[in-house]
């Protein structure tokens, strides 16, 4: 699983619009530094786009669902 800084990246896996309500496809690596793991092969429904999108996709409607330090 890749590790990203959620403060700098706007990936669908960390967006409130991406259908992963239990956050099973993301996990904190070093949350105090905003570093998180995610499943970059996962596809879920995006409520903004109305279609399935990959966790690594970017969107201009991004709203982060994790706490950023």
What does this structure look like?
Helix content is 0%, strand content 29%. It is built from no helices and five strands. The protein has strands at 3-5, 26-30, 35-38, 43-46, 51-54. The strands form two sheets. The chain has a three-stranded antiparallel beta sheet, with no helix packed on it. It has a two-stranded antiparallel sheet with strand order 4-5. The termini are far apart. The mean pLDDT is 95.
**Computed structural class:** mainly beta
The largest sheet is:
3 strands, antiparallel
Strand order of the largest sheet: 1-3-2
Cα end-to-end separation: 22 Å
Low-confidence stretches: none
Strand content: 25-35%
Shape: globular
Provide key terms for this protein.
69 residues, mainly beta, 3-stranded antiparallel β-sheet, 5 strands
Chain-wise SSE layout:
Elements: E1 3-5, E2 26-30, E3 35-38, E4 43-46, E5 51-54
Antiparallel strand pairs: 1-3, 2-3, 4-5
Quick structural gist:
It is built from no helices and 5 strands.
